[in-house]
Amino acid sequence: GNRIEDIYRTFYTGLAGTPMPAYGGILSDDDNWHLVSYVLYLMGKTNVTETALSSPHPAIDTAKVASTK
Question: Rounded CA gap, 38 and 51, in Å?
């Protein structure tokens, strides 16, 4: 998906059946959020506020994401 929480989850858990690896546990939470910010920038979503990218994001339970890994 292209929502902030979808992008974060993709970096954290990877994509099964594709070369996209999981970075949760390899990269810090801050690094994952920087990647999300960069992807949003590449998508042309330059008006995203810093609050929307704050860690932890209110729509994401990072512990829950980690448990689905």
Answer: 15
